[in-house]
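Action item from last meeting closed. Structure (616 res):
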């Protein structure tokens, strides 16, 4: 139960992560390949137990003789095997062939099966469960297998038959105890399907998960449709008012998504919509229009951001838009002085404050809204499931608009956010130039430093982004503090600021302010600048140890440059000994600025994670 396994069925659904082919006994008159896994059958002889107190180690060794040849066998720190070998002279041994001193071959730490047991078979290998692992866990699951016959199949027969899916009891038996095909070709095919998770038995369980997920999402939608939401008069923000408030024209994609939100807000049931758009596509403007409609209709709105830096940025942006409409934007974060936090909480409770932008501080029980009508959540994937729910419960079925700039392919978005309607802003504002991205290695650093100097002289500003603040013995990656002095030395007379999560709010604001107004032309930062730093003059981003970042994160970081009229550049610095997969990931970044294409690649490299619940 401590591992989350409460029933026999829970244990049977703990599937093998790989399978070992123990279907053929290897004979010792045949040559053995170093590193190969072999099943031997023979008599053991010359069994010894040696103890090495100085190293706190015990060694059991012997020879196995199958009548055709002999091979040395060694167990490290398995003292009890000495007794078992003495009482069972003939055994099956399964293990890996390794090289001993002198270049001879030996079998190291093999698993033992007694003759008479069914040793020649395809053997499942499981991830450890607490103190249960290896053969012990396999035996435990084998003892539970008869219970599979009594498992009620949750999938209705008509659905199962329509898709030609096997029954659950057969699925469990085959995955834990696969049959052994007679011919080699069929055996290799079955092993390949089992190891890749593409067998019809794996597909049946995958179907069950997706079917249950679809049912849960349908249930959520039905439940939401029965709720009565706050009434929003969408006519208060018509085309004329949008033209008056905005110094630019909405793109066709922004207009389309805005109209979808208007329809939701006027429907009488709570809106639950995911607005997805690439970096710089203008999601915040659309969210601001939705907030204006809610506030003008007499309701409060809350805008949630995952970091204080992003919350501060959004408070400024929304303020510039909503202040002319006579709505003051207030900020609530954990680093605000207690007196200011108390003042904001009191204003939310008595409705004197109608618009608030905040971080996780908005989840506190002490934060009470008088009439919360709309919740906007930015970078939704960085909030937990429970956090989003806690915010929604602070109002009477408030409308919910969640946004993400981290690109998610449409198919994945519909699956992961199945309880949300989906809107995509798939168009960038006119005049935006694509950021040019290049992969460079340490031998190119002098050229990269010179290129950054040229950008500074030409009026641009430069980000240097690091995965670490301080150097680490555990993680081999560039650290900000380690590079700070060399960067300052490389650019004498140039303003250099530092920005990371260990700084207090005052120092953070000073660093951003100096970088924004041009007093500093270089900003050394960690991923706190991934979102929330909008400086149109920034034209170059240099990402150190770029292989340490995910593709979506790199795409977000790259979105900090190219927000003005200048051509922008992103240089990914990496180690010379880069692995093949890491190189392919970074080459994807260099090959496209399309966030959706990057998301597809990220999904392929990293997998989808867990689609429901709170585990990652």
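Sequence:
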């Amino acid at each position: 139960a401590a591992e989350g396994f409460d029933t026999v069925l829970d244990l049977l659904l703990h599937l093998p992560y790989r399978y070992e082919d123990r279907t053929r006994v290897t004979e010792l008159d045949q040559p053995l390949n170093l590193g190969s896994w072999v099943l031997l059958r023979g008599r053991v002889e010359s069994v010894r137990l040696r103890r090495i107190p100085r190293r706190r180690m015990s060694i059991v060794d012997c020879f196995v003789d199958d009548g055709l040849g002999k091979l040395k066998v060694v167990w490290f720190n398995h003292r009890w095997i000495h007794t078992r070998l003495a009482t069972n002279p003939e055994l099956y041994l399964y293990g890996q062939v390794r090289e001993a001193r002198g270049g001879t071959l030996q079998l190291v730490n093999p698993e033992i099966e007694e003759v008479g047991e069914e040793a020649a078979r395809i053997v499942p290998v499981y991830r450890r469960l607490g103190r249960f692992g290896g053969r012990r866990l396999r035996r435990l699951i084998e003892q539970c297998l008869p219970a599979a016959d009594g498992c009620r199949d949750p999938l209705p027969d008509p659905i199962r038959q329509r898709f030609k899916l096997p029954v659950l009891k057969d699925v469990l038996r085959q995955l834990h105890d696969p049959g052994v095909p007679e011919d080699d070709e069929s055996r290799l095919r079955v092993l390949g399907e089992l190891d890749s998770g593409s067998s019809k038995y794996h597909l049946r369980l995958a179907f069950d998960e997706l079917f249950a997920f679809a049912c849960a999402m349908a249930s959520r939608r039905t439940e939401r449709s029965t709720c009565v939401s706050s009434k929003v008069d969408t006519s208060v923000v018509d085309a004329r008012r949008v033209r008056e408030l905005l110094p630019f024209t909405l793109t066709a994609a922004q207009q389309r998504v805005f109209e979808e939100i208007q329809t939701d807000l006027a429907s009488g049931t709570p809106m639950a919509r995911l607005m997805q758009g690439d970096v710089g596509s203008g999601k915040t403007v659309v969210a601001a229009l939705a907030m204006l409609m809610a506030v003008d209709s007499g309701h409060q709105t809350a805008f949630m951001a995952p970091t204080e830096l992003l919350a501060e940025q959004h408070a400024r942006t929304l303020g510039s838009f909503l202040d002319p409409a006579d709505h003051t934007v207030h900020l609530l974060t954990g680093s605000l002085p207690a007196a200011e936090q108390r003042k904001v909480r009191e204003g939310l409770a008595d409705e004197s404050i109608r618009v608030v932008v905040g971080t996780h501080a908005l989840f506190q029980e002490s934060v009470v809204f008088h009439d919360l009508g709309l919740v906007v959540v930015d970078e939704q994937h960085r909030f937990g499931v429970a956090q989003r729910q806690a915010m929604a419960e602070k109002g009477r079925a408030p409308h919910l608009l969640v946004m993400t700039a981290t690109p998610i392919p449409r198919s994945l978005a519909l699956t992961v956010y199945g309880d949300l309607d989906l809107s995509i802003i798939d168009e960038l504002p006119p005049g935006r130039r694509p950021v040019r991205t290049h992969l460079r290695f340490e031998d190119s650093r002098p050229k990269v430093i010179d290129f950054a100097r040229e950008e500074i002289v030409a009026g641009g500003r430069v980000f240097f982004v690091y995965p670490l603040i301080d150097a680490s013995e555990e993680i081999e990656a560039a650290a900000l503090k380690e590079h700070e002095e060399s960067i300052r030395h490389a650019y004498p007379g140039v303003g250099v600021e530092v920005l990371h999560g260990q700084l207090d709010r005052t120092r953070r604001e000073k660093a951003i302010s100096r970088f924004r107004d041009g007093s500093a032309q270089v900003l050394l930062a960690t991923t706190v600048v991934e979102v929330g730093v909008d400086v149109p003059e920034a034209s170059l981003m240099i990402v150190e140890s770029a292989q340490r970042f995910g593709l979506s994160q790199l795409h977000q970081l790259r979105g900090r440059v190219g927000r003005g009229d200048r051509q922008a550049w992103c240089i990914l610095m990496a180690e010379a000994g880069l692995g093949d997969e890491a190189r392919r990931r970074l080459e994807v970044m260099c090959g496209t600025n399309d966030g959706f294409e990057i998301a597809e690649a990220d999904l392929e490299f990293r997998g989808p994670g867990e689609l429901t619940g709170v585990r990652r």
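Note appended to the action item: Residues 609-616 have pLDDT under 50 and may be disordered.
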